[in-house]
Amino acid sequence: MVREPLRDDQWECIKNLLPGKTGDRGVTAKDNRKFVEAVLWIARTGSPWRDLSVQFGHWNRMYVRTAGATRVTGCGYSRRYRATRTSNI
Predict the structure, then answer these.
(1) How confident is the model at residue 80 (pLDDT cuts 50, 70, 90)?
(2) Whose CB among 17, 40, 63, 65 lies 3.0–4.6 Å from 49's, allowing a Cys bridge?
C-alpha cells in the first residue's frame, strides 16, 4: 500500500461525496480532506484511534465522526462511493 497522503486528483474525485460541505444541512466540516487522510492513516497503519498522529487533529473527534457516519442509515455514502468507483474504472 502506498504511504503518502491523498493526492490532489484523488481528493477531487471524492470531495463532493462527503457530508459537511458548505450548503449541506448540519455542521460544516472544517477540513474534510484532513478527516479522509486520518481514516486512511488508520487503515494503512492498523493503529488504534488513540494513536492517531496529531497532524490530523484530536483522535477522539475523528473517531466520533467516523463512528457517526457508520451509524447513519440511508445516508447513501456507499451508494455514492460505488457510483464514483464504477464511473472511474
Answers:
(1) low
(2) 63
Q: Which residue type occupies 38? A: A
Whole domain around residue 63: which residue ranges? Answer: 8-87
- Average pLDDT over the chain, rounded to whole? 75
Return all residues near 67 (Cβ < 8 A) that are at least 6 apart. Answer: none
Can you give the pLDDT at residue 71? 53
pTM: 0.64
Count of structural domains, the chain = 1
Q: For residue 31, what are the CA distances in angstroms to 2, 19, 48, 80? A: 22, 11, 21, 20
Which cell goes with 1?
500500500
Residue 68 domain-assigned?
yes
